[in-house]
C-alpha cells in the first residue's frame, strides 16, 4: 500500500491530546529567568526618561534593559534583515530613544519569577516627548507611492504591465462594473503567545526554543545581530502553536531573550502578552478599486485593479493584491497598480494568503456584479471566461482543473437550486442567498536540502530543518519518504524543527510540501543509488542491476527475483548507517514554459435576518484543484481552517485603529472577534483530480492559502444575493445591511 | 509625586509567599507561591504541568481550561491558593475516549487549544445538560481555535457523546 493519498492521522496527535507536546515556552529549565516587555504608550516621538527605580526594588527583579544599557555592538541595519525582510531597515529593538509605533518594546524587565517580571514591568513609568503621527490610511492617500524593490520582491513580483488600451476598451464595453473595496487591519493572533526560551550553554553557545516558521531564519538572524558564529546558535522549534505568517520573521521577543541571556549569562524566557501580540506584523489595511468591462455575451475585455496599502516608515512591505485577475480572466486590455502609504505603524507582514485574500474579494465581487448586470448565472460567467492560459505571464498553466472545481462543487453544493434574482429566496424570517467565487494561489517551490539515512536497524530516517506549524508537515513528509522506499509509516522517522538539520526555507506561502517533499525525493534517489552500490559489493545477483531496475519494498531492495534486506546492506557497510544529503530544487528549465497555480471555487449559503440584519453562513463548500493531495485528512483540515478564516475575514475580524491615539484599541480576544464554535455551521471540502506531471516530482501544489481566497468574496456575493445589498467593506457588519 | 504612587503600589504588593498543597491528577503537590499566582501559572511555571495552555491570561480564550471538582474552569482567572483541597484534573491526568476521537477527526492543527478543548468537552459531557449539536457548539464556544478546527472538534465531541448529531 502506498502512503501517499492515505488519510493518515497526524503522527504527533497523541502528544497533542495528552499535553505532552512541548511548545517554545514549556521546556523545563533550571534557574530560568523570565522577561516581561514594557511597550511604548505613545505612537511617535522620543523617550525622555524611563523610571526604573520602583521596579528595581521588587524582590526577584534582576535587571531592567532599556536603550540606555542594552548590550551589544552589531547595530547595523543590514544585520537585522531576515529571510523575509522587505526592502528598508528592519526594526531594531531597544536601539535608541526613538519611538516609531505604538506598542514598540522599550524595556525588558528580567526577574527570577514571571510574577516579579510582570510586576516590575507594570511599575515602569516613562516620560515621552510626543510628536505628530499619521496612522490613518484614508486621510493619507495623497502620499501613495510605488514600493521600493528588494530581495523579498523576488517572490512577489509587481503587477503585470498594462496591455492594450484599458480606458478605451472600458469606455466602449457593453457592460461595466466597478467598486471600492476597503479592508481593515488584521492580526494573526495564533493561540500560542510568542515566546522564546534561550538556554545559555556557556562559551557563547545558545540553544533557543523559539516560536517561529523558520529555524534557520532565526539562527541566521541571531548570529548576525549578536555577532555569534552560526554553529553556536541552535534554534529548535518542533511544536508551534499556530503562526499563520506571524512567525515568518524573527519577532522581538527572540532578540530580547537572546540579548538578556548573553548579558546575564543565564537562561531567559521572554513571553509576550496577548495585547503585545498586536504590536508586530499584521495584514495591512488596504483600499482597492476595480473597473471591469464585458461584452453582451459576458466576455471580460477590460480589467483595471488598483490598490493602496499601508506600510511602516522603515520598511516597504508589499503583497500582491492586484496581480490576480489577469491570471484568471484573459482580457486584452488591462491596467494594474499597487501603491503604498507609509504610516506610523509597525511593518505589516504576510498573513495567511497575503494579498490574494484581499485582492480576490475585489475581483470576484466585481465579477459577481457583472453577472447580475448581464443576467448571467455567476458560475456561467466564470465558465464563459475560462482559460487554461495565464494571460498575465502569457504561458499555459502546468495544470488547471478549475472547471472540475466549478462543476463538481456546484453539483455537490446544490448551486442550481438558486433562483437568480436577489431577495428571491427565504426561510421563515430569513433571507437566503447563494454566492460563489473563484480562488487562486501561486504554486511555488523553493530549494531545500534533506538528509535520508538507513539506520543500523534498517529503518529510514529523514531530516529537514523545516517546522510544522500545525499544517501536518511531519505526517506528510513521513508519507512521502515511506513511499520512496515502499515502507510502512512505522519504519520511517522524520526529524524536523531544528536549525541543526539540513536547510529548509521559512514555512509559508503554501510551498513547504512541494519544497521539502521534493528535497526528500532527491535525497531518497541518491540514497537508493548508494544502497545499490553497496549491495553490489556483497551480492552477486545485484552486480548487473541498474538503479531503474530495482524496486524497494518493506525494507528490501528487489531486482528481478532476488532481494536483499536493508539490514544485509547495512551489514555489508560494516554495520554503519548509510546516508545522503541532497538539494531538491524546482526544474527551472522545464518550468519556464508554464504558469503554476492552485485553484479553487467556493459556494456559500447565507441567512440574513430581515429584522436584525444578522448574518449566518449556514453552509459552504470549497472545491480545490491542488495537484496531488498527499494526505486528504490533513489537507482537508487546512482548507477547512481557511474556510473558518474566510468567515472571520468577511464577517468578523479587524484590528481597529484609533487615529487620534495612533493605537489599536481592541487588543484582546474579547474585542478582536474571530469565529467561535457557534459561528461555524456546515463546511465541506472537495478535492478534484488534478495530475500535474510538470510542476515537481510529486505533482504537489500546496493547500495552505487556497481555502482563504475564494470564500470571503463568495460570502459577500451570497449576502448580495440574499439582500440585494453589496457591501464592499470587510468585515461586513450587520448594521450596514440595515441602513437603507 | 509620581514616585510616591509607585511606592504605594510597591508596598501594596509586598506580600509573603504561602505554602499550599494542591491535588492535581490524584497527586499532592506542595508549593510555596505568592497568593496572586494564577492556577495556570502555578501549573505551568511551578509544577511543570505545561499541558495546560496560556492563550490570553484574561479568561477570553479557554486554552487554560482545567477540570476542578468535576467542573471545567478557566485556570488563568483562578488563583492557585483558592484551590487548596480541590480536586484538579489537567490534560496530563486525562485518559478519555475524547482524545482518540480528536485524533480520528483531525480536530486540531497546531494543537495549542487542544488541551483546553478536551477539558472543556469532558466538563460538558459530565454536566450532561446539552443535547443537540447546536447546544454543544454554544456550550463549547468559550474555547477558541485559531486554526479553525471548529467543525472537527464538534464532530469529535458528538461522536463520543452519541445521540442526535443534528
Ligand atoms: S488563558 Fe485563560 S482563558 Fe485564555
Ligand atoms: S488547533 Fe491550533 S488553535 Fe486550535
The amount of helix of chain A comes to 10-25%
- What is the CATH level 1 assignment of the largest domain in chain B? Alpha Beta
Radius of gyration of chain B: 18 Å
Instruction: Estimate the helix proportion of chain B, in percent.
Output: 25-40%
The secondary structure category of chain B is alpha+beta
Pick out the low-confidence regions of chain A: none
Strand content of chain A: 15-25%
| CATH homologous superfamily heading of the largest domain in chain A | Aldehyde oxidase/xanthine dehydrogenase, molybdopterin binding domain
Largest interface: A-B, 70 and 66 residues
How many beta-strand segments of chain B? Answer: 5
Provide the CATH topology of the largest domain in chain B: Ubiquitin-like (UB roll)
* SS-derived structural category of chain A: alpha+beta
Strand order of the largest sheet of chain B: 2-1-5-3-4
Mean model confidence by pLDDT of chain A? 95
> How many beta-strand runs of chain A?
31
End-to-end separation of chain A in angstroms reads 61 Å
- Helix-strand sequence of chain B: HEEHEEEHHHH
Molecules bound to protein: FE2/S2 (inorganic) cluster
CATH architecture of the largest domain in chain B: Roll
CATH architecture term of the largest domain in chain A: 2-Layer Sandwich
